[in-house]
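hey m, so remember when u said the tokens were messed up on ur end? i reran from scratch. heres the input so u can diff it against urs
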Amino acid sequence: MSWKLPSFLDRQRDELVAQGLALLAQSVVKAVETLAGLLDAGDGRLKRLAARDILDQHGKFRELDELSRRIEAVQGRLKER
């Protein structure tokens, strides 16, 4: 067998990371669906907590999205120099 151990291990690690990220992505969808479903719960306290979690995460997502755009704009300006 003619393969180099480090590159083989790197490929194996990359594959495991990709599988883990795919599972995480599936879990995120399920978690969001669960939270959204709790908005229809009969318990008002549970509804409020679910709503707060959804709004908090949405705010964080928007903030990260805005920061990513700003960083990309700065990187673009730096490349032009």
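this time it looks ok to me. DSSP finds two helices and no strands in the chain. if urs says something different then somethings off w ur setup not the seq
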